[in-house]
Amino acid sequence: MGVIMETGPAVGGLMRRFLASLRDGVGFDILLVGAAMVFLIAMAGLPLIYNVLMSFQQVDMFTLGSLIRPWAGFQNYIDVVREPAFWLVAKNTFIFVFFSMGGQFVIGFALALFFAQNFPGASTIRGLFLVSWVMPGLVVGAIWSWILAGDFGVLNTILKGLGIIQSNVFWKSDPAFSIWAVVIANIWLGLAFNMLLLSVGLAAIPRDLYEAAELDGANALQRFWTITLPMMRSTIGAVLSLGLIGTLQQFDLFPAITEGGPANTSTVAQYWSWQMSFQLYDFAKGATISVMMLVLVLIASIIYVRSTRHEVRG
Amino acid sequence: MKLNAYGLLAAVSLGAMSLATPAFAQVTLKIWSIDGVDRVGIADTFSKEFDEANEDIVVEYRAIPFDDLVNETLRAFATGNAPDIVSFDNPDFALFSSRGAMLDITDRVANSSVIKAENYFQGPLNSVSWDGKLFGIPKYTDTIGVFYNKDLFAEAGITEPPKTWAQLTEYAEKLTDPANNVYGATFSARAGEEGTFQFLPIIQMSGGGYDNVATDGAAEVLDLWKKMVDNGWASKDVLSLGQWDSTGTFNSGNAAMAISGPWEVDRMVEDAKFDWGVALLPTITDGGERSSALGGFDWGIMSTTKHPDEAFRALEYFASQDNRIFEEFGSIPARSDIELPVTGVEKKDAALKVFLEQLQYAQPRGPHPEWQKISKAIYDAMQQALTGQMSSKDALAQAQTTINGILGK
To answer: What is the CATH number that goes with domain B24-142+295-362?
Structure first.
């Protein structure tokens, strides 16, 4: 009886302190971190682990719903690399990522610089460029599919009218052009996003830096190299890493424009992974390819984080 | 007090539920198919009729888009929510029947007075058979032949449709007229099932099959196809166009010949402003072996069903209505005992006659549980040859290696 009487107030005090810290203090922080972690683990972590697990297992329609499946070790990885299309897909993925990002970035940067000139209506027209960004990929794909059509395509008609080509270019059916057809559409799709982020970065550079440089006699090109580019470094890093993720995620354009054809000449890793899982019903290989892509993105993000770290602190 | 109120509520709702249930036990059948997604079709119409005609059975019909059907069924089967009856495209059927996902109905069919296995065409029947047992019944069938523009043929001084692939190529050259945007021929060599659908018959007529693709005859015809594409007698876009779009260019007068099937006929009667006809798919040598693609869907009962008797009754009802499917839905029954009605549209009736003859030579794709992978090997080879990445012989040899791996040879 006495013991209880003694501990009663102590427990009550502990409880009160705990509740107080939940409202304002360490407990509150832990609560916030905890909620974020639970969300992350449930929505991203578990599916990711499940995917990695699947790439080491034998999967077929009967084991699709279960977690424990026959272990395959690295066999899925070996099989994927041995696929006749593997190196072609790797090359296509590289072309698609490199040139999509390059095109989006260079043209996006040029447009951002252009609209930073503050001519009348500059911000309104810049706003209109966002139209491409709000359109769903499948719609964009369908439109580009018509533009790039071989016999009665818009682009061919224009090019012929200008006298640039003599006979039709079969953008979607010629192995020499098919991957470029998707690259062109993807550059158009991602252009506005790049331009927007870079415009924000440009606006953040203090005007007086340019004025001072101008007084010192620096010309436009020198100002660009010595002020704009260095000041934009973190923005450019962010744009490029987001561009990499966005390009590796780009899927809608492929089924809408080339379906990966002809003869896999426009198949990229993400489309291949989908084909394996949902057209050939080889879920293990589909998972394996996506794990390979994940590793690539991880390496790229590590490089990005490392390259910007010293700058943030400095 | 509170608890009592909830208890009362529960009792009332339970009572209401039992009141809503008729005196006799009702069975619910889930039926899935692609019909009814964009237009009324066989499965949705007959399911509704069957539901209305049977007091003891409730049919829950679900229309699923073509591209999602197999995936959706795989997922449902894996999680134990599979439908009772499902209608698959014939090459997809073996994926399920070979793994015990479909109900063996061999004995039920043998005892049925409505469904008789001997009435079905052999090709469609093969697609629902596995290991000597019957796992479903064909729903309808189709095949491919050559549509040709009689006006353009007359202009070019050609009197008969081509009999061999060499002849088809020769005619294509004569009929090509770049000034008027006319290609000699069009077909679908797309990277997908449609590509295999059009190319596999050639492998079959050369004496091969899906398990033996690297034949001399197939390489020879593939070279002819390449010749047509390279010389502009057929559009390069045959590599990306599906059959429906490819034949669209024929209807608008931009191609003089088109390889496609009976599903085109109704639109062609409407759209084509010229005289046209249909011929059997050419052979490799004059009078040589014939073959053609076998299309169409099958019905099957999934092995997880709790009501196999009622599900089989539904199949019997569907089969008993087969004589209506040509008139109402333009689909050809996969049965030899049904006389198709004359529509009175002269070109349509003539076309149907050719397609019915062609059906006698139609051979199924597979059946094989990993058909989709075999199919990819075949259309990949076809595309590699047509784009000049490999010679026809090498491409087919590579496909053979891939297929051997799948077949475990």
So the answer is: 3.40.190.10
